[in-house]
Design brief:
Helix content is 50%, strand content 15%. With 387 residues, it is α+β, with helices and mostly antiparallel strands. It folds into 3 domains: 114 residues, Acyl-CoA dehydrogenase/oxidase, N-terminal domain (Butyryl-Coa Dehydrogenase, subunit A, domain 1, Orthogonal Bundle), CATH 1.10.540; 98 residues, Butyryl-CoA Dehydrogenase, subunit A, domain 2; 146 residues, Butyryl-CoA Dehydrogenase, subunit A, domain 3. Helix 6 packs antiparallel against helix 9.
């Protein structure tokens, strides 16, 4: 028998279409050739690799699941594989694409007017217009319904006041899709860079997602025209629908992180000798990498099935919660274990494990903490809301 692929023990590759494999492999080449050589330095310097945006756009990775408007119109599994390969490099790179695609472009596509779609989506697909998503507030966290940001009508305009926190892409964004309370319910608005009273300072001193831009958003009597209000949704179902799209991609991303960490450790333990033999010859090491492969395989099967359900229009938010919880926890545990197996080398960004480990501390928190997703599943099983 041929030796199995350590990163694909159940031959997931054979369950993919030719197009899906081609997309995955093209993103993998981009990651290996263009992103991997520079990502550690960007992480060390706490800078986002903006020089990669044009190449990401040229590959068709921005808004890849959207039909028309210069977007690729790819299937859900293809989008998942894109997220997997990008996060194999770094969660910050995947987060940029996730926010641009699922949290900025998707609401304009799903809830916007045709004029708004034509105005913004083609430029966003080309990477010429960068977007961010303003929902989370500093006091609210996991309770978006408690938002204080509000908008009131003033003639043909809206006046927005409030603030948002932990916003990926915020300081480099040309537009922000902002959710605010109104007398008619929660609504979405496209706030443009340069509008009077709008500011997006970057958050510094982060020990996680350092190769990503994270910002606050401030709105001080920001005047937004009615033409910038998303007309086709009212209520929390709007932003929560966006989060479901983004969380789906997040179920795939950490698989890439885990594969990167495990692959690095397999190479390291094969080469590193202690007490006259390679580390890989120790039972303790083999048991630990075997457990990594078990957990990666389970995550791969969960996300693939979830992607097929999504393509069939059958995906439920609870299923996304289970996958996000399982897969991010899997990747974080593997990254921590790999950091340990690397010994002293594991604390430097010369190796990948600690970078992935630190990034995943954010991924397990944003877009629904682990506890929130556990409670979503608990509610599904018992019929009782424990929030």
């Amino acid at each position: 028998m041929a030796q199995l692929n350590p990163a694909d023990l159940y031959d997931i590759d054979s369950l993919l279409s030719e197009e899906e494999r081609m997309i995955r492999d093209s993103v993998a080449r981009f990651v290996d050739e263009r992103a991997m050589p520079i990502i550690a330095e960007h992480f060390d310097n706490a800078t986002f690799p903006r020089e990669l945006i044009a190449e990401v756009a040229d590959l068709g990775l921005l808004g890849s699941s959207i039909e028309g408007y210069g977007c690729a119109g790819l299937g859900s599994v293809s989008y998942g594989l894109i997220c997997q390969e990008l996060e194999r490099c770094d969660s910050g790179l995947r987060s940029f694409v996730s926010v641009q695609s699922s949290l900025a472009m998707y609401p304009i596509y799903a809830y916007g007017s045709e004029e708004q779609r034509e105005r913004w989506l083609p430029g966003m697909a080309r990477g010429e217009i960068i977007g961010c998503f303003g929902l989370t507030e500093s006091h609210g966290g996991s309770d978006p319904g408690a938002m204080k940001t509000h908008a009131r009508r003033d003639g043909d305009d809206w006046i927005i006041n409030g603030s948002k926190m932990w916003i990926t892409n915020g300081s480099i964004a040309d537009i922000a899709v902002v959710w605010a309370k109104t007398e008619e319910g929660i609504m979405g608005f496209v706030v443009e860079k340069g509008m009077a009273g709008f500011d997006a300072p970057e958050i510094h001193s982060k020990m996680s997602l350092r190769a990503s831009v994270t910002s606050e958003l401030y709105f001080d009597n920001v005047r937004v025209p009615e033409a910038n209000r998303l007309p086709n949704v009212v209520g929390l179902k709007g932003p929560l629908g966006c989060l479901t799209q983004a969380r789906y991609g997040i179920t795939w991303g950490p698989i890439g992180s885990a594969i990167a960490c495990m692959t690095e450790v397999l190479d390291y333990t094969a080469d590193r000798e202690l007490f006259g033999r390679p580390l890989a010859a120790n039972q303790a090491v083999q048991i630990r990498v075997a457990d990594m492969a078990r957990r990666i395989t389970a995550a791969q099967l969960i996300s693939l099935r979830l992607g097929r359900l999504k393509e069939e229009g059958k995906m439920a938010p609870t299923q996304v919660s289970l996958a996000k919880w399982n897969n991010v926890r899997m990747a974080l545990d593997i990254a921590r274990d790999c950091r340990d197996l690397l010994g002293g080398s594991g604390i430097t960004t010369e190796y990948q494990a600690i970078r992935h480990m630190l990034n995943l501390e954010s991924v397990i928190t944003y877009e629904g903490t682990e506890t929130v997703h556990q409670l979503v599943i608990g509610r599904e099983l018992t019929g009782i809301n424990a929030f």
